[in-house]
Write a structure and sequence with these properties.
It comes from Xylophilus rhododendri. Belongs to the aldehyde dehydrogenase family. Pfam families: Aldedh (PF00171). Keywords: Oxidoreductase. There is one protein chain. By secondary structure, this protein is an alpha/beta fold. It has 2 domains: about 5-250 and about 455-475, Aldehyde Dehydrogenase, Chain A, domain 1 (3-Layer(aba) Sandwich), CATH 3.40.605; about 255-440, 3-Layer(aba) Sandwich (Aldehyde Dehydrogenase, Chain A, domain 2). The chain has helices at about 40-55, 60, 65-80, 85-95, 100-115, 155-170, 185-195, 210-215, 230-245, 265-280, 300-310, 330-345, 380, 400-405, 420-430, and strands at about 5-10, 10-15, 20-25, 30-35, 125, 135-140, 145-150, 170-175, 200-205, 220-230, 250, 255-260, 290-295, 350, 355-360, 365, 370, 390-395, 410, 415, 435-440, 455, 455-460, 470-480. The strands form 7 sheets. Strands 14-17-18-13-12-20-21 form a 7-stranded mixed β-sheet, sandwiched between helices. Strands 9-8-7-10-11-23 form a 6-stranded mixed β-sheet, sandwiched between helices. A hairpin with a 6-residue loop joins strand 5 (about 125) and strand 6.
Length: about 500
């Protein structure tokens, strides 16, 4: 029997108001393995109302920061203890390997512990003011109900980047997962309840973005929107936030360059570049989808990469020997194949890959693909693919490398591979990217800020400063003289 999941609203499992459900497909088998609610604006309304009630309740707003920290630590412990179940749900939804998802869930637990440690570090200030007999101080207060919209590629992890600081600051939330990968979020939400959070603090509403997304982002009781996804949807979210003068945090992907100089450790660089684009099937916001390589080593380096790509094992994501599972869903598979065709049309040469195949159970696979002869104006060098497709561009000087790195409207991540420490720092300063990795790639941490420039988004996630994005400052003035000043001299 196909498992059926329900929304979580006000601490209860809630069937969708209209009684409709969506099949969620396992990318390995290409068959439905579960059902999720096909919610409507009515369900969104119930969830936002529950979050608003919880925000105003003594059960949540009245608890101490120390108690809130204890709840966060408990949640982190439960995520770690239930990592196998969460990883399995995610693998069934998005086709990433179980090995990768298990590691990811174990790391995700640290986000709740880290931000739990900041709960009782939220402090105001006493401001020295010129007016005699007056005390001025500030309070740091939560915003209210936060709308959180997360994508299908790493839903539980990317939710933690939003939810951990939001809860630490004392907010409540309504989560809208991708219709392609909702079950891991729904599984996680039950852990929130088990951890002891009051009902309504965390709510989950599933469904099609076009049907319930606007009801959530336009809701008058939503105080902030936190979104990870594509530029098109992110733009619509930003417009919705602007209409109601509310803040938004947006992480919108990238076209990240890996820049390899001739003095780099080429074996290490080749493995780092390959991991940056082919791990997770390239379905990562920081995928290093552009390789900028020095002219003098171009051919030899591409040969190294091609050899690595040929050894990557595609197959059953539950098999520990598999490196990369199937593409997460058919729309994404079709997008990847369109982009490969565009690269050929624009004059690129395929050094390897470019083809697809159907696995023994029906899953869709794209072989690791390397496009050479790419110029900066080609679509494959400008548009995000979100798949295992690498565009290779040549450079001859450091200046040219900087210009190529900054030649797109994205700026999420960048890798620099060099043995020259001075060059590493020069390049890190000049490349327009929210994160720069030197002689490594794809490293992230709950204690380090993450975000992008330009079309890669607005705001940052991670690090101590991130909690400020879920707080607002109130200024309080107190007259300590006991005398009311007059605005009308002589009266």
């Amino acid at each position: 029997m196909t498992p059926r999941y329900e929304n979580l609203i006000d601490g209860q499992d809630c069937p969708p108001a209209q009684g409709a459900y969506l099949d969620t497909e396992n990318p390995w088998t290409a068959r439905a393995w579960a059902q999720i609610p096909r919610s409507t604006p009515e369900d969104v309304e119930r969830a936002v109302a529950a979050a608003a009630r919880a925000f105003g309740s003594a059960a949540w707003s009245g608890i101490s920061a120390t108690r809130r920290a204890a709840l966060m630590r408990k949640l982190g412990d439960l995520v770690e203890a239930n990592a196998p179940e969460l990883a399995l749900a995610e693998t069934r939804d998005n086709g990433k390997t179980y090995t990768e998802m298990l590691r990811q869930m174990q790391n995700t637990a640290e986000w709740y512990r880290y931000f739990g440690g900041l709960c009782d570090k939220i402090e105001g200030r006493v401001i020295p003011v010129e007016a005699p007999g007056h005390l001025n101080y500030t309070l740091r207060e939560p915003l209210g109900v936060i709308a959180m919209i997360v994508p299908w590629n790493s839903p539980v992890r990317l939710l933690a980047w939003k939810l951990a600081p939001a809860l630490a600051a004392g907010n409540t939330c309504v989560i809208k997962p991708s219709e392609h990968a909702s079950t891991s979020i729904l599984t996680f939400a039950r852990l929130v309840r088990e951890a002891g959070f009051p009902d309504g603090v965390v709510n989950v509403v599933c469904g099609l973005g076009a049907e319930i997304g606007p009801a959530l982002t336009d809701h008058p009781e939503v105080a902030k929107i936190a979104f990870t996804g594509g530029v098109g949807s992110g733009t619509a979210v930003y417009v919705a936030a602007a209409r109601r003068m509310r803040p938004a945090t947006l992480e919108l992907g990238g076209k990240s360059p890996n820049i390899v100089f001739a003095d780099a450790d080429l074996d290490a660089a080749a493995m780092g570049v390959a991991g940056g684009i082919f791990a997770s099937g390239g379905q990562s916001c920081v995928a290093g989808s552009r390789l900028l390589v020095a002219d003098t080593i171009h051919d030899a380096f591409v040969e190294r990469l091609t050899a690595i790509a040929s050894r990557i094992r595609l197959g059953d994501p539950m098999d520990a020997a598999t490196h990369v599972g199937p593409v997460a869903n058919r729309p994404q598979f079709e997008q990847i194949m369109r982009m490969i065709a565009m690269a050929r049309e624009d004059g690129a040469t395929l050094a390897c890959g470019g083809d697809s195949f159907t696995g023994p159970e029906g899953g869709l696979f794209v072989r690791p693909t390397i496009c050479t002869g790419v110029s900066a104006d080609m679509r494959i060098a400008q548009q995000e693919v979100f798949g295992p497709v690498l565009a290779v561009l040549r450079f001859s000087t450091e200046e040219e490398a900087v210009a190529l790195a900054n030649s797109t409207r994205f700026g999420l991540g960048a890798g620099i591979w060099t043995g020259d420490v001075g060059r590493a720092h020069r390049m890190a300063a000049r490349v327009r990217s929210g994160t720069v990795w030197v002689n490594t790639y794809r490293m992230t941490s709950q204690s380090s800020p993450f975000g992008g420039y330009d079309l890669s988004g607005v705001g940052r996630e991670g690090g101590q400063a991130m909690i400020d994005g879920y707080l607002q400052t109130k200024s309080v003035w107190v007259n300590t003289t006991g005398v009311s000043p007059s605005a009308f001299p002589g009266l």
